[in-house]
Design goal:
The structure is a homotetramer. Chain A is α+β, with helices and mostly antiparallel strands. Chain A contains 3 helices and 8 strands. Chain A has a 5-stranded antiparallel beta sheet, covered by helices on one side. In chain A, strands 2-7-8 form a 3-stranded antiparallel beta sheet. Chain A is elongated and about 45 Å long.
């Protein structure tokens, strides 16, 4: 390997950014975003990340696979208020076969405030057997590899 | 017909009652229930109504039918606040074949305040053809008839 | 008034367009968008419409006013499937003082399929008195007028 | 104290049980409960637990305090399907001042299947200062202590 070779998986060091605007249905009585709402944004950010790599989530499903969340570990740092515009950051944290850990950070647009941080673990499922997939079709493998 | 005979379909004159407790995730920044949340309660009330008549909604789906909402006409009268306990009332308003109109009223437990009123229209769908069902299996027909 | 004057409120004839991508959390067991999910999109479309005219919804709230939904009349024509990209169209249907009726159409991106159509009625509320606003501050009135 | 005495705080060893019925709006395209939906049930279970001890969550808010979620660590073991009836179990895992860790298990009614397990961390907030509460009013302290 030459000295200037790219390290394997280096793309994972860059954050994918997904912007969100906060609407009333995201909030609760306290005037801030309800804690469960963030999971809808993490899902949207994750799917947009895959799509940017060429794989629509519905295409993955049509190919017979899914990528459900099997573990959530997140911390809430500061609240997000109605009308705020925030950025959901996503990047690959680790991968072991069909098990993928994504790191997330939800920040203010200027990056000065951290609202949420944590990891979500996903596992590829074969829809036919309804079990963990042993291998993935090339079209999916390629995209997961380039995460 | 004697003067004190019950009118046909009189069961539809009685309201089925489904109680709800308001939690934070039901509310928005204004401290009251977000307008879309009520649709989750109408769905729960409708399904409990069918279940009380002997038909679980998942059983209907397993039999190859669904009862999706095709029209919503509702008015919001007074807001519902976090911690409130309210009653979702449901009854048959009209039926024409596989098209059903349910009337709803959402009221305070003591009945003194009306929060929401209106109608939802549902149509039975055959899951195989993905079209409006022409007829319904006996198990479903019986329950719809006794609504 | 000259014969070629623009009719009053002519801006209302143009639809404001808000694009949506369908994610898993929007759908239900039937593989299509759950009927209540559309209300989150109508809310987002409505707020983006106001924002395009210069009024953030949170700014309206900070000024002491809200614009809650008081009536919903919508029909579901064809289902929307996961992965679909659709357009939420919004325009002013009618206005009487602080009472506003917005017309909505949810269509496929190419406009060939109509998914949802209908009206939402909103009423401006004064947050201090928690009653219907008699008049609106200039900053809000101007935006509502130009809807 | 005799050697077989119950350890202090033994009440925390008992699970509070909150039953849930799965409706369509809880599910996603895969026919099972969407992963974020469980947070609405954990919230309901937690509030019912406090209420059973004599403290409505809205009463806590009226007293000037909140108990927001600041950390989530949960694992999904097996999916929950539409129509299922399940039990959400809650108990105190640990407490350090105004910081509380609740353990949760979501199981089938007969206890034979584990669907979700994990911990949620909550911190009492003083609504006036919008900061972590130093102490709690007696009415709240008593209930938290008896968790």
């Amino acid at each position: 390997m030459s000295s200037n070779a790219q390290p394997a998986g280096s793309s994972s060091l860059e954050w994918h950014k997904y912007p969100v605007q906060v609407y009333p249905h995201h909030t609760d009585y306290a005037g801030v975003v309800w804690h469960g709402t963030y999971l809808t944004w993490l899902e949207a950010a994750r799917i947009e990340r895959l799509q940017a790599l060429g794989l629509g989530y519905h295409e993955m499903v049509n190919l017979g696979y899914e990528l459900p969340v099997v573990e959530i570990n997140i911390r809430y740092h500061t609240a997000v208020t109605m009308g705020d515009r925030i950025i959901v950051k996503t990047r690959l944290e680790a991968r072991a076969g069909v098990r993928i850990i994504l790191a997330h950070r939800i920040e203010s647009v200027d990056g000065s405030r951290l609202h949420v941080s944590g990891n979500l673990t996903l596992v590829a499922i074969d829809r036919t057997s309804n079990k963990i997939a042993r291998t993935l079709p090339e079209a999916i493998e390629q995209v997961i590899s380039s995460l």
